[in-house]
Amino acid sequence: MNEDKSNNIFIFPRWTSVLRPAIAIGTLGGLLYATVVVAFGFSPWATDVGYAPVQPVPYSHALHIGQLGMDCRYCHNTVEHTAAAAIPPTQTCMNCHKTVRAASEQLIPVFESYSTGMPVEWVRVHDLPDYVFFNHSAHVRRGVGCVSCHGRIDTMEVVTQVKPLSMGWCLECHRNPEEHLRPVEFITQLDWVPEEDQLALGRRLRETNNINPPQDCNTCHR
Ligand code: HEC
Ligand code: HEC
Ligand code: HEC
Ligand code: HEC
Ligand code: HEC
Predict the structure, then answer these.
(1) Distance, CA of 101 to CA of 111 (rounded, Å)
(2) Residue 210 region, left (φ>0) first, then alpha (ψ -120 to 50), else beta?
(3) Ligand 2 pocket by Cβ (under 6 Å)
(4) Distances in Å between the alpha carbon of 218 and those of 103, 131, 132, 155, 189?
């Protein structure tokens, strides 16, 4: 029995604590369960595509980016340097809205947040399970643009999740990143299209920059 247990621990590293109920069932059951969940992880069924929660302020990316031409990094200013792409603090909005539309009813929660110091309660749209490790800077600094994972945010009145964010989806690109690589200066230009064939460009960028997205489990589960 002891041997069985250590076997289990070997098969399931610490991050798989989600699988603990399976481990209790025993090696065979555990393996079966793992096979099922891995298969599920690889499948496109697990998906929140289309999720577009109502936000406390009707902030529009279509207006601020599509029409006013702002760059993503004005607000999501950590995206090139850290794992997370920060949601902007109220101060960032107030840089303009102290004077622009300073009487707008739509902006009342922003003005209240500014005077109380309590942040606006934005509702999270994209949300990976806690056992998955993701890093923005590792992607955007290698030439994967926002559009590959978030779609045309610059045309959205309400942010909508457009990709499944499933394990199969991550791995599909990690196996064949060529279709998604662009020169880093265009990562936030969502409507950018290459003048040449995307695959030819992607292959060249991959080779010159030595881009090799890892596929081993501990890249994303640690
Ligand atoms: C003026 C500031 C501002 C700019 C510029 C901006 N955003 Fe945002 N973004 C926000 C705010 C505020 C939210 C949270 C509310 C929401 O989801 O609409 C947000 C939310 C998001 C989300 C969803 C976050 C989540 O909860 O999953 C994504 C993805 C996103 N922005 C991408 C972009 C991209 C790509 C660009 C550039 C094309 C961009 N943003 C430009 C302010 C901005
Ligand atoms: C660079 C300047 C700038 C920044 C920064 C900015 N906005 Fe705006 N915002 C504008 C302009 C310009 C308009 C359009 C005003 C108009 O239609 O005349 C606008 C319009 C709006 C409106 C519509 C208001 C109405 O009554 O129609 C909302 C809501 C809004 N912004 C929210 C935000 C939020 C939330 C942030 C911070 C995440 C933000 N804005 C940051 C410039 C900015
Ligand atoms: C390789 C895919 C990928 C790329 C490229 C990408 N994102 Fe994301 N983004 C994600 C995923 C996945 C999440 C959810 C992360 C989580 O739940 O931990 C996310 C979440 C976000 C969030 C919510 C805050 C956070 O970090 O969780 C914002 C804002 C955002 N992305 C903006 C951007 C912007 C702006 C760009 C381009 C400069 C960009 N993203 C490029 C996949 C990507
Ligand atoms: C559109 C393509 C694409 C998608 C989708 C994508 N990745 Fe990546 N990923 C890459 C590329 C390209 C790299 C950089 C590889 C390099 O630097 O050699 C990378 C690197 C990474 C790294 C850093 C690896 C390291 O140690 O340097 C992590 C972690 C990662 N990806 C996790 C994820 C996760 C989790 C998802 C899904 C939620 C995901 N990726 C989706 C293309 C993608
Ligand atoms: C490129 C990133 C990436 C790599 C590499 C990766 N995974 Fe995952 N994995 C994910 C993501 C993202 C999810 C969450 C899927 C979801 O929420 O639908 C996930 C989910 C899972 C789950 C839970 C499935 C479920 O539906 O609950 C298991 C088990 C799993 N992965 C095992 C593995 C194993 C074993 C490996 C190595 C062969 C591996 N993963 C490699 C990104 C990755």
Answers:
(1) 11
(2) left
(3) 57-59, 63-64, 68, 70, 75, 88, 92-93, 95-97, 100-101, 104, 106-107, 110
(4) 51, 11, 10, 36, 31
Give nearest CA residue, ligand 5 atom 11.
Answer: 167
Alpha carbon distances (Å) from 137 to 65, 91, 154 = 21, 24, 20
Nearest to 136 by CA among 208, 198, 87, 192: 87
Give tens-digit pLDDT for 60-88: 999 999 999 999 999 999 999 999 999 99
178 C-beta neighbours (distance < 10 Å), count: 17
Ligand nearest to the CA of 110: 2
Please give the distance, rounded to the nearest whole angstrom, from the Cα atom of residue 198 to the centre of ligand 3. 22
Q: What is the band of 2 on the pLDDT scale with cuts at 50, 70, 90?
A: very low
- The CA–CA distances, whole Å, from 217 to 14, 43, 149, 155, 211 equal 12, 16, 21, 35, 18
Q: Cα 181–149–164 angle (5° rounding)?
A: 135
pLDDT of residue 200: 97
